[in-house]
Amino acid sequence: MTYAENHLAHALRANEQPARPFILNPTPLTYAAFWLGAERLASALAIAPGDRVAMQLEKSVEAVQLYLATVLAGGIFLPLNPAYTDAELRYFLEDATPTVFVHAPERAGNWPVPRAITMQGLLAEGSDGFTPVPRKPEDLAAILYTSGTTGRSKGAMLSHRALASNSKTLQEYWRFTRDDVLIHALPVFHTHGLFVATNVALIAGAALEFLPKFDPAAIMEAMPRSTALMGVPTFYTRLLKEPELEQASRNMRLFISGSAPLLAHTHMAWEARTGHTILERYGMTETNMNTSNPYKGARKAGTVGLPLPGVEVRIDAPAGEIGVIEVRGENLFSGYWNMPEKTAEELRADGWFVTGDLGQRDAEGYVTIVGRGKDLVISGGFNVYPKEVEDLLDALPMVEESAVIGVPDTDLGERVVAVVKAAKSTSEAEIMAAAGQSLARYKCPRAVHFVEELPRNTMGKVQKNLLRGSYG
Q1: 239 sits in which H/E element
Q2: pTM for the whole structure
Q3: How many CB atoms are located within 10 Å of the residue 276 CB?
Q4: What confidence score (pLDDT) does residue 328 get?
Q5: Which of 111, 182, 251, 271 has the most CB atoms less than 10 A away?
């Protein structure tokens, strides 16, 4: 039996050279040593094909090895945010019914799983010489739960085919090779850090500067010996404050941004400082990556680029107008765990997935994300797209960043409200007056609230549900 009979594992091993470095820090590991650790963990899992393996751990090399171990053992990997409370954690464990739950020592408890164990305990039980369990392309490799901002979290089921095909596409599209060193500063419980950053590096045979978290100083220190960085917009806004950025970034060939909208002025400021144009892309938990600005060609600020090879994208509106984005391709998930009705509602029989994102395409086919459909504000019968208002506010010299929401209104149905992080001293009246010079009255904020920071999730997305709760 070979790795070729385990679809995803084979894809992730295809271009490696055992003696080459894979992890450069904190403890250097060759590809051979990294996979040996994964195989030892696979032997310790003692699971049957299709069993779920849940993990709630801080970022570590062992956490990534556990992902590979689960794939090798024929299981389904379930990474969980270390920030989840006991109540949240219990929901995921009861819903996904994992056979094994690997947790931090401080999270020991009476969990509803057959086997709860620490990473240290699992490592102690491993042995060499594990034989991979055969898996087909359509078999599940992972379940990732969505954020659940509008109801209980949904478990997106991701197949070997979806993960392997999308990672290979990205590796080729972004020109990753064995010569690359990727700065990995993303969490590994999310698709961006686990399936995009890690899988692309593995498929390319590249190396990782493996950082425990986002730390501007650590990234600056790593840049001169690295070639690429994958991050969220917050990475770039904070790195722009580093005085040595120009010098540190000279060896880099590629900066990629995703998981949240990158402001056009951040895009332009980065290019002015470094000479590099950030490559923005668009994906979802359910779809992996859908679109990307090109590696060679125009990278348009404010857009998420063109459909990736093998991915179809359509918008249910005439060209240039705003509509709901739908996608189709091998990158798609297989449905929601234990939610057949929700699956049928969003993943159609003909293969098209209704993303719930609003967007538009320009004459060259570049996609711009306008926002989530649930964030659309309908005020007095008129549609207000928050991003249009946010773009205008963010361009004002007294505004550093804004978020626009709709709150209930007895007269209008909803009224437009802006939540602003100010760049300098200003007032509600000044911002409302400036907006009124460029926006139709129905689009203008009826109130402006000032905050020190906009609330964000781990991946940098503004949590508008929290803002609606605070100001609605």
Answers
A1: helix 233-239
A2: 0.87
A3: 16
A4: 98
A5: 182
